[in-house]
Every structure is written in C-alpha cells, then in structure tokens.
UniProtKB/TrEMBL annotation:
Primary gene name: rsmD
Organism for this UniProt entry: Thiovibrio frasassiensis
Class in the EC hierarchy, top level: transferase
Statement: the UniProt record of this protein carries the keyword Protease: no
Protein name: 16S rRNA (Guanine(966)-N(2))-methyltransferase RsmD
Keyword annotations: Methyltransferase, Transferase
Name of one Pfam family that matches: Cons_hypoth95
Assigned EC number: 2.1.1.171
MF term (GO), any: nucleic acid binding
Keyword Transmembrane helix among record annotations: no
SUPFAM superfamilies: S-adenosyl-L-methionine-dependent methyltransferases
Length: 194
C-alpha cells in the first residue's frame, strides 16, 4: 500500500498486521487512484474528513495531492495509532489530526473540530454491510459539518444500496472496483450543485 501521487508519491504506508483482523480493510490502490481521478482538482486546498479511517490512506492521499488539512477518525485505539504512524511517515503531522471516537454515537464531537466553513471532502469507509454507513451519512446530511460544495465518498460492499438523495446530499456518481462499491455525493443546497 502506497501513496499514488503528489508530494508523498511512492511513500509506503504501514499496513495492518494480523492483530487487526477485520478491523481494517484498506481501499485498494486501483480504487483509490480511480476515485482521485474523479475528484481531480477538487482535492487541492480541501479540508478533508476521513471517517472510519483505517490506515489513513484516503486522507493521506488527499494531503499528498494538495489538501489543506485532514481530520482522521476511527473507533479503535490500535487503528488510530497506525494512522498516526502513517501521518508521520508522510511528514503531514502539521496538517493532520487523528481522533479516536465511536462513530456509532454520532458526529456531535465534530462541532469543536470542524473548519469554520465545514469540510470540503469526506471519506466514509465503515465496515462493509454495517448500518453505520447510512447512520453517519444521515448525520452528515443533517448537520452543519459540510462546506457549500462538499463531496462525500462512501465505500461499502458493491451490492449495498444507498439513496440517490439524502437531505442536502445527492449521489452524482456510482462506481464498482472488484467487491468494493463507491457512492459519490455532493452538497446540493442552493447555489452549490456544480
């Protein structure tokens, strides 16, 4: 597992060992490269939120490609320690924050952590088949966490089903890479449907 492009291109990330078991299922390099090709210039200067961050590969890729900052959140201490090590390997400690939080309890903790104008890019990669994906997506759609032109990238099992529209979020693209499915949503409040 490596950073594909940008300032940390080629940097190898620490991968989860056997002690992590099913806690982490990293997004494949192929899928990550394809998703970032879709996002393209929207990453530069973005304020990124990486939920169920696992190894941190998605948020780290965004930082490498020019994102302004990233907040990584995962519920397991051993996983957040791995993310912290990967952040340090990529030399992004000045632009990254890592938090351990149980995302099943909601996103209220973000109120004190979010940038003034909200997050521009959110990665949401919960355990496949978990009800957590929809719950967190609903919290994002209902809360004030998203910037005016925010994009949310949800990863789940390819056969999963998600709504086309949920509150202020509308799905504008759907992709499948092997067993992984990706739903890309954009913020659709007045004046922000581009």
């Amino acid at each position: 597992m490596r950073i594909i492009s940008g300032s940390a291109r080629g940097r190898k990330l620490l991968a989860p060992g056997p002690r992590f078991g099913a806690l982490i299922r990293p997004t494949s390099d192929r899928a990550r490269e394809a998703i970032f090709s879709i996002l393209a210039a929207k990453v530069v200067g973005a304020r990124v939120l990486d939920l169920f961050a696992g190894t941190g590969a998605l948020g780290l890729e965004a930082l490498s490609r020019g994102a302004l900052l990233a907040l990584f959140v995962d519920g397991q201490r051993s996983v957040t320690e791995l993310i912290e090590r990967n952040v340090a390997l990529c030399a992004f400690t000045d632009r990254a924050t890592v938090l351990q939080r149980d995302l099943g309890r909601g996103l209220d903790f973000l109120a004190a952590k979010q940038p003034v104008n909200g997050f521009d890019l959110v990665f949401l990669d919960p355990p496949y088949g978990s009800i957590l994906a929809l719950r967190v997506l609903e919290c994002l759609a209902a809360g004030s966490f998203l910037g005016a032109k925010a994009i949310v990238v949800l990863e789940d099992a390819a056969e999963a089903q998600y709504p086309q529209t949920l509150g202020v979020l509308t799905c504008f693209d759907r992709r499948r890479y092997g067993e992984a499915g990706f739903w890309l949503y954009h913020h659709t409040e007045a004046g922000s449907n581009d």
